[in-house]
Design a protein that fits this description.
Length: about 220
């Protein structure tokens, strides 16, 4: 299509606008700040019915509802793409054209979000087995994006870490990408806290865990 935005220019604008960050190795992730904005729109539209979805697309692109419905069906527009489009529109200080925002939304949907594992916790991925081999006494936390209980647990993380003895290692996994860990240790939700003692899995707490409840489990296990 003539006049289509240049991808390199669009990516540069996303980077300059704080939507995307480039790592030292050249990899791209969306920023935490942008993901907070996208989460608001995702919650609003991920389960929206067809009429609400069509009306939102029609308003975003200044189309008649019947035209928006045809465009959605012809181009396979998803609710995730709509949420990304509206998040980009809300997040950026500049005002790109609708076409440019659509390309931005497509790129954003292709870029991985940052890890939901808090910085205070050692991030684990496929290395969790080596981590547990090196640290037979350990606590492994499980996190995911767009998770209110995870945010509550993260807010209490300093108090939780204070309750852990120095000899006990603490790590964290992204529940969405650590299916092997979740299956092996029967973790079905996030957040979750999995306790290991002497190399054995001895306790799991799923959902938000208060600092007092966490401290009680730590005392029992360690």
């Amino acid at each position: 299509m003539t006049g289509e935005p240049d991808i390199d220019d669009v990516l540069a604008r996303l980077t300059d606008g704080g939507v995307v960050r480039e790592g030292d190795d050249g990899s791209l992730t969306t920023t935490g700040a942008f993901e907070s904005t996208r989460a608001e729109y995702s919650r609003q539209y991920r389960t929206a019915d067809r009429e609400t979805f069509v009306d939102a697309v029609a308003e975003a692109f200044d189309l008649a509802p019947e035209t928006a419905a045809r465009e959605i069906d012809a181009n396979g527009v998803t609710r995730a793409q709509l949420a990304a489009y509206l998040a980009v529109e809300s997040f950026l200080d500049t005002s790109p054209t609708a076409e440019t925002k659509a390309v931005m939304a497509h790129l954003v949907c292709e870029v991985s979000p940052p890890s939901p594992v808090p910085r205070a916790v050692a991030p684990l991925d496929d290395s969790y087995e080596a981590f547990l081999d090196d640290h037979p006494d350990a606590v492994v936390t499980v996190w995911k994006h767009d998770c209110d209980p995870c945010e509550r647990l993260e807010a209490d993380l300093p108090a939780l870490l204070d309750a852990v003895p120095e000899r006990v290692a603490v790590g964290g996994v992204d529940g969405a990408s650590a299916s092997g860990f979740r299956l092996r240790h029967a973790v079905n939700t996030a957040p979750a806290v999995v306790f290991f003692a002497g190399g054995d899995h001895v306790e799991t707490r799923e959902g938000y865990v208060s600092p007092s409840a966490f401290a009680a489990v730590v005392e029992d296990v360690f």
